[in-house]
Amino acid sequence: MEGEKEVGGGGIVPTAGKPDEERGGGLEAGKQEKEEARKNVEEGEGQEDYDARTLCIVNIGTFTKPNQVERWVKETCKIERVERIKKIRQQRHAFVRMEKVEDVENAMKVMAATKFKGKIYVIEPAAPRNNRRKRKAQEEARDEAAKKAHLEDSREKETDEGKAADVAKKNVKDTITPLWRMTYEEQLARKVDRLRNLLRKLTKNVKKTFKDTVKSMGVETRRYHMSGWSKDQWFGEACAIEKEDIISSPVVQGYRNKSEFTVSFDDDGKPSVGFLLNSFPSVTVELPGEDVATCPWIARSACIAFKDRVLAKSSQQPYNKLNHSGFWRRLIVRHTVHKAVMVVVQVRANKSEAAVVEEAKSLVVDAFCGEKSWLSGPNGEVYTLTSLYMQENNTCSNAMDVSAPLHLLKGEKTVVETLGGVDLVVSPDSFLQVNTEAANKLYALVGKWANMSGTFNSSEEGGGNAKSGESGQKVVALDVCSGTGAIGLSLAKSGVVAGVSGVELIEAAVEDAKVNAAKNALTECTRYVAGRAELHMPAVIANARELGGSEARLVAVVDPPRAGLHPDVQKALRKEKAINKLIYVSCNADSFVNDASYLCRPLTKQELDDEGYPAPFVPVRAAAVDLFPYTEHCELVVLMERAPTKELSEHPGADKEDKKEEK
Predict the structure, then answer these.
(1) For the chain, N or C: smaller number of CB within 10 Å?
(2) pTM of the entire structure?
(3) Model confidence over 291-324: pLDDT tens digits?
(4) Maximum separation of any 2 CA atoms in the chain, in Å
(5) pLDDT in tens, 601-657
(6) In terms of Cα–Cα distance, which of 239, 312, 347 is closest to 617?
(7) Per-residue CA distances from 77 to 109, 127, 470, 549 (Å)
(8) Is 294 exposed, middle or buried (0-12, 13-18, 19+ CB in 10 A)?
(9) Which residues neighbour 270 within 8 Å (Cβ) at sequence distance 6 or greater?
(10) What whole-number distance in Å separates Cα of residue 560 and Cα of residue 579?
(11) H or E stretch including 20?
């Protein structure tokens, strides 16, 4: 632009429209003037008006060209008196500088109401440009202030013990309940957003596998997509999940029915029990406070009793995992809706320390079975100590080892929990959902989906007693990774299915499932197999046919551990053509994405040619149940069905692409 000159730092400085020779001194004078102009820009001189006249077009796109922006501003928006338009390549924003400040407001209104490439963009005043010297001075001032603040904090920590205690409590809350600063509604929204992103990841994984598979067949990938996938699925989430699709927990405070605590030393170096603060170089714990939302009062009371009545009197020290020394290791407290309590004290002891173990047993029994005020709650509720155990664990891990000996010190071997309408016998090493009230909602959702007609055949749900399903067809649940049988038995008890055929790797859990079936008078309609699911799938199917007949509709329900399904189990479920519906209950959505990527993957050429090989699964519905308020976790439930055909389906946008090519 005539009369202006581009200088270092991105500024434009007005100059006289004369040659360098006339400004005194030829080229040398010109260089001198340029240098002065550059310094003026660095000092910020002449910039007051510059920032006020500049607009920013937000997120206009990385690959948008400057001439495209210029045509839009001048021709489409018909904005006049534009001094300069700037769009740097590979940057997401564009800048428009007006000649006068009074033109800015009108330009913002026009551009904000005019579409560019079919979209409306945010137009806002450009951020003030700090010159380099000023910015450097500000950074140095911030660094100096940070150093002073650090020194002040260090002095306060050394002198103010109360503040140090508050910091420790904050650390406990951040570790155990990382979302404690959020309202419950904000927590639910955060969890839905995360699950939505993971479902998009599932779509990407399947599309990538599909593309590679189709390429190997020599077919144009752009013309096809997988059968059963809608346009919305294929271009977005595998199956939509919205905020209303997350089921909130009925109880958000003190909801855990099982709490596990570490025995170690507190900040003062005294033996204590509670939540882990540090694990290296020394293990530090803190008693659970009332502000830790997940911890129920009964577990907190048991910790206090153990600390005051056992650790304070014992001559043995807490366990030190660095040198594998010490005695007391863990405290586990489990309670039920019937106000029954099971306590397990874990210790490390060698065979030569039998006398030490006996002394510890006596101390534990006196602590929990003597004076029982710890069983009385703040609101008048009274619990009963039903089972008291001691476990000798000599391994390096604190996790409960099923091979470690358990000694029943007082009471009964098990407690009874009611979940999903089923009475379940719970032993010390049994797995059970930690949020009983929310788990009831989870099992109800699984039952509803198990009794639903196939999406590719009918959108109606089965009603009433679904033992006969639609058209007199019986429904039988295949409970894969059945554990102690909680989900399957709840389906049978509520009449959703005619029978349950389960398979579980751990033999002790299978025996517990059979006991639970007998306790609920469901032995006749349940069958359980101990072993690897991938090896026993034919037997599981045979048991299901025995329970429901040869025409029974089979619904697989899988509730794997956090690591997800074993690859061989994935293959067995994928290949079993008798399974047309699969309900996946996941406590770790990342593992679900990995498993579902295989269950939903396209068929290879060899599988397409095999008439007996079934079509892949397609995600149909997704929902979440919040079993873990104040944490990042929740249960994801996904309903998957077989695609209607194994053949390729034409891509929703294939015709449009062909017309574009013809033009």
Answers:
(1) C
(2) 0.70
(3) 899 999 999 999 999 999 999 999 999 998 888 8
(4) 108
(5) 887 777 777 777 888 898 989 999 999 999 999 999 999 998 887 666 665 554 444
(6) 239
(7) 10, 23, 61, 71
(8) buried
(9) none
(10) 18
(11) none
